[in-house]
Amino acid sequence: MSELRRIYLDNAATSWPKPESVYCAVTHAMRELGAPAGRGTYAEASEVERLLRETRHETARLLGVADSRSVIFTANGTDSLNLAIHGMLRPGDHVVTSMAEHNSTLRPLKQAQEHLGVTVTRVPCNGEGLVDPDDIRAAIQPHTKMIALVHVSNVTGAIQPVTEVGKIAVDHQICYLVDAAQSLGHLPFDLDATQADLVAAPGHKGLLGPLGSGILYIHPKRESELMPIRQGGTGTQSETDTQPDTLPDRFESGNHNVPSLLGLRAGIAYLTERGVTTICHHEQQLAERLWQGLREIKGLQIYGPQNALQRAGVVSLSIDGYDPQELALLLDSHHRIQARAGFHCAPLVHKQIGTNQQGGTLRLSVGALTTTAEIDTTVEAIGDIAAAHPF
Length: 391
Known about the structure:
This protein has helices at residues 20-33, 43-63, 77-88, 103-116, 133-139, 162-171, 191-194, 258-274, 276-294, 324-335, 347-353, 372-387; strands at residues 7-8, 71-74, 94-98, 119-123, 144-150, 175-179, 198-202, 214-218, 300-303, 314-319, 337-338, 340-342, 361-365. By secondary structure, the protein is α/β, with parallel strands linked by helices. It has 2 domains: 7-18 and 275-387, Aspartate Aminotransferase, domain 1; 20-274, Aspartate Aminotransferase, domain 2. The model has no long low-confidence stretch (mean pLDDT 94).
């Protein structure tokens, strides 16, 4: 028997494959440039500095940000959310968030509760994983400092009403943090409409870069409020032991992950050339094809919004009689189809959609380079597994 071709459907964890230009950029950074950013004036160091400026500029342009200095490079999406949460909150503050959030938001907030005296209200989501803006409005208190909301659920694919919530935040003059981990690069992101003060995202998912990079957009009105949570060398003002006040140096201590960031630059260039709207249409078509194929399988339950316009390219499911981990193992070992099983680092949403007692879900997530043929093969494979029901 010939070896089965790998079908990768775990793009919500990290995108793969990457555009060829991303691999080339990383190799070039490692083999040819081999220099840090902002730590020298020799030719290669200057070239790295120039390319990082371009990366920052292109990231800002993708977000619709005029001043690229408002885009901060971080280690990953979790790092971005930690900076936003720990850098903004003070003792006695109140935060409104949701049950749909990832642990990258839930855990920093829990830390702030336990060690800073911050109070947190977690509003529910419905059985499809969607948050009601009215619940967020009703949860606001006189001392509410922040509203933190995920744009797209990494479990149900639900596209949350970030624009409506943004209006609520503006009306109440509350800092608004949007977790764009599953949306930036997958969906067109309208910063003006969203009115977010802080936008956090990794570089390795929808932006198609390598692991090891993240971004945090900081609105100018929040610059002075947001405190750095890390201090150190920036390559600037080295004659003083005081952290620089200027952006982006104020928040970027330590050497940048140059190979990852130059790979990110190539990923964003691919997105720009192909068009985020085109990619969004491609992924939503694939997710709908997957959804429609799966719904015909006996004993299979799909979780998430019924309306295709309310979900991104993430599909979670369960099959009667199977543990999600068992499903993932069968798909990989028998069909070379790779998906993720479990709670997906978002434990509270499973209580809302009724999957916490069954060990979570099997999650299939498409990407920019996923094909229709891969979707059809996956539907057939899952159908075969369901038909072999052990009971």
